[in-house]
Amino acid sequence: MMQLYPVGVVKQWNEKADYPGNTMQIHIHDEFSAGLKGVENCEHLWILFWMHKLSEEDREKLQVHPRGDVTKEKRGVFALRSPMRPNPIGLTRVRLIKRDRNILIVEGLDAFDESPVIDIKPG
Amino acid sequence: MMQLYPVGVVKQWNEKADYPGNTMQIHIHDEFSAGLKGVENCEHLWILFWMHKLSEEDREKLQVHPRGDVTKEKRGVFALRSPMRPNPIGLTRVRLIKRDRNILIVEGLDAFDESPVIDIKPG
Fold this sequence. Notes:
homodimer; mainly beta; Elongation Factor Tu (Ef-tu), domain 3; 2 domains; two-stranded antiparallel ribbon; 9 strands
């Protein structure tokens, strides 16, 4: 039984932000914030998150057109970065811009607002 | 509810092997083998696996000594590559040596024999 717990959540900026461009926030839930000790010294991080917008049917697709381009032959999801896959875990290497208590401001995260965060590893 | 399904399993070599050194096998379960189509064209792969030797107590540790060295101050698990973490997902970039039907022979995988494989992404 492989059950995941959300350790945090991705947040997009509202309207006016001090950090524009390609940045997002990761809010680590209070009960996991002790796990952040020292993370401010990491220039880059791997973020593992749950692609929560996918349906159970999306998890059953094993072959898809690369980038949804129907002129290209279908390939296996393990040979593609498609979000369709049996276990919809997103993986992005980001640059850590700033840590503010239990909030990380990161650049380059390929996630949606409200995506549950599963793990953070130095990278 | 974030529930993972094993798509395969890591296998160490038995005794005499044609592929010695730092290689291991990944056996993809039959029902997911369609997802491998085209994977043979990937030189490197990211392997996500479940660190199945960890206990539920290990998942509760949020700060540990780096590399178990007690002379070093404890740091948060999100700032370390320690296997102790709330969601024990291992992440390794490997070189694909060979695909033989639903078996991948890979170099550099930092997993144990029988670790469940969760996802494979081109890398």
